[in-house]
Amino acid sequence: MTGLRLILDSVGHAYGGMTVLNALSLTAEPGEVLVLVGPSGCGKSTLLGIIGGMLAPTAGTVVIEGEVAEDCLNPLTYVFQDFSLLPWRSVAGNIDLVLAARLSRPQRAERIAEVLAVTGLTEFANAWPRQLSGGMRQRVGIARALAVRPACLLLDEPLSALDAQTRDLLLDEFASIIARASTTTIYVTHNLAEAVRLGQQIVVLSRRPGRVAAIIRIQRPLAERSARDPDLRAIEQDLWTMIRADAAAAERERLNAPA
Which residues pair with 226 in a beta bridge? Predict the structure, then answer.
């Protein structure tokens, strides 16, 4: 898969009279995993919608550079919190939904087999969604997104609907899937353990209006990281410190505001 370069220059967004994002600039390099973190309401999902073309920024520009591979059926593809699987279709049938209009039956069968292998779901090709655990259903959603061979994968808290144990068990598998996909990935999460496990560039947004408060880069390959890594734990603690300090400043402003 070929990754795209995303360049955001002074991006802002407002709903009515409320500014959600303000003068936000960042760059995601081809094949990079960029993770967006920050307090609730800081505009992470709004920014993801702008990158994906679902929303138009009210200020600034979004530039997408790079060539898309010939086998790419959808350059930018979303994975949401909700599994969004059709209960009357099998695992393979749910993946086939995004391929049917563009590929022949043999090509679709080959593509489905490929992404099922990548996500560890080969033996569940004919299973129904109701027969799968939450973690497995989310893997089907990821397999479906990868089936179109996107140049940019946009993920909005894809593990948040899972219980803590399932999420922890799936996280290493998820990191392996993303690494093998080698596509540019923008990942929104509230979970800082996910951020340091997956992110090569972690962008911390400030409280609303969201701005870039800090950027942390982790050079270590995803395959060489683990949940118990002390260096990653230290970075996670630094992220918590930044977000808590921002929340404390907001509370001080609220208390000192005129009645």
Answer: none
Query: Is it the case that residue 222 has pLDDT exceeding 90?
Result: no
One-letter amino acid of 152 = C
ω into 209 cis (within 30 of 0): yes
213 contacts 31 by C-beta, under 8 angstroms: no
The Cα–Cα gap between 131 and 234 comes to: 39
3-state percent breakdown (helix, strand, coil) of the chain, nearest 5? 40, 25, 35
CB neighbours of residue 113 within 10 Å: 14
Share of the chain above pLDDT 90, in %: 41
Q: Which amino acid is at 259?
A: A
- What tokens were used for 6? 């995303």
Q: Rounded to an integer, what is the distance from CA 259 to the centroid of its chain? A: 40
Q: Which domains does the chain have, with CATH numbers?
A: 30-54+70-256 (3.40.50.300)
Strand, coil or helix: 190? coil
Find, among 223, 236, 155, 148, the residue nearest to 195 by Cα.
236
Sign of the Cα pseudo-torsion (15, 39, 5, 11, in order): positive
| Burial category of 15 from C-beta neighbours within 10 Å (exposed 0-12, middle 13-18, buried 19 and up) | exposed
Supply the Cα-derived Rg of the chain in whole angstroms.
19
Q: What's the pLDDT tens digit per position in 125-148?
A: 999 999 998 888 888 988 898 888
Sign of the Cα torsion 41, 45, 48, 53 reads negative
Structure-token match 């679902």, residue found: 54
Residue among 183, 139, 146 at smallest CA distance from 162: 139
Q: How confident is the model at residue 246 (pLDDT cuts 50, 70, 90)?
A: confident
DSSP conformation class of 4: P
